[in-house]
Amino acid sequence: MISIIVPVYNSEKTLQRCLESLIHQTYSELEILLVIDGPTDTSIDIGKEYEKKDSRVKVILKENEGVSRARNTGIQHAKGEYIQFVDSDDYISEDMCETLLRNVENTGAQMAVCGYHHLFLQRDIVKAAKRNHIILKESSEEFLKLYEAGFLNMPWNKLFLRELIKNRFDASLSLGEDLLFNLEYMKGVESIVILDEPLYYYIQKNGQDTLSSKKRADKYQIAVRICEAVKEFYSLLLKEADKEEYNRKIQVGNHIIYKRLLLEFLDEIEGMAYDKTITRDQKLDLIEKYMKDSYIQNANQNIEGLQIDYRLINFFFKRKRKYIVYLLIYIRKWCLNLLRGTKS
Question: What sequence ranges are listed for the domain Glycosyltransferase 2-like (predicted)?
Answer without folding.
Answer: 3-168
